[in-house]
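Quick question, first post here. What does this chain look like in 3D?
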Amino acid sequence: MMILNILARFQPDGDPQPADRLHIEIEATRLS
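> Answer (accepted):
Ran it through. Tokens below.
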């Protein structure tokens, strides 16, 4: 639940950088 909320905040209008997206997912997982 929290992970989805965090990831939803980091969706820009364009395509996100793969590395940035991966980093965000890792951080979201660690924070949950």
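The mean pLDDT is 73.
DSSP finds two helices and no strands in the chain.
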